[in-house]
Amino acid sequence: MGTKLGEVQPVFPRADKGAIERMQKMEEEQRSTPAAEAPGATATAPAQAAAAAVPAVIPATEKISIDDFAKIELRVGLVKVAERVPKADKLLRLEIDIGTEVRQVLAGIAEAYAPETLIGRKVVIVANLAPRKLRGMESNGMIVAASLDGGKPVLASFLEDVPVGARLK
Q1: What digits encode the pLDDT tens for the residues 15-65?
Q2: What's the CA gap between 84 and 18, in Å, rounded?
Q3: In the CATH scheme, what architecture does the domain 68-168 have?
Q4: How are beta strands 137-139 and 153-155 bridged, if at all?
Q5: CB neighbour list of residue 127: distance below 8 Å, 6 or more residues apart
Q6: Model-level pTM?
Q7: Burial degree of 163 (CB within 10 A; 0-12, 13-18, 19+)
Q8: What is the pLDDT averaged over residues 120-129?
Q9: Beta strands of the chain (E only): which ranges?
Q10: CATH 2.40.50.140 placement within the chain
């Protein structure tokens, strides 16, 4: 028979079109200021404080359809093994249990995470990415992480307990 679900809520809040337009306008104004255009010119203290208070707006990339997004298989995985890749400053070799199998994934997160801190951690991986060789080793997936200023990765994680192998939609 049927199973009753609780109240359904969106995973992400709907973007406010007005807020996006305001941020784009602020970004255009910042680009058009003479201090930003003149080589060697420095911004005044109030302008620097205002720029620090406004988060960087990342320009939108090409839009994809829901069908394109549905092709991406995001899975919850549990890190079983984590170790540095020899002669690679940025790479870690991870063995990740995704419920149906354990995958080897190479991730460029060694500068941000010590291998021992990742063991037992749940992560999100792109499970249907074509395998790729890095440093002579095969990577079968990609870890999902945010990229902060300076390129520092921050792994996607969950506030609630999510079973290994669960698919993200």
Answers
A1: 677 777 777 777 777 766 554 444 444 444 444 444 444 455 556 678 888
A2: 46
A3: Beta Barrel (2.40)
A4: unpaired
A5: 73, 74, 75, 98, 103, 141
A6: 0.62
A7: exposed
A8: 95
A9: 74-84, 92-97, 102-107, 122-126, 132-134, 137-139, 142-143, 145-147, 153-155, 167-168
A10: 68-168
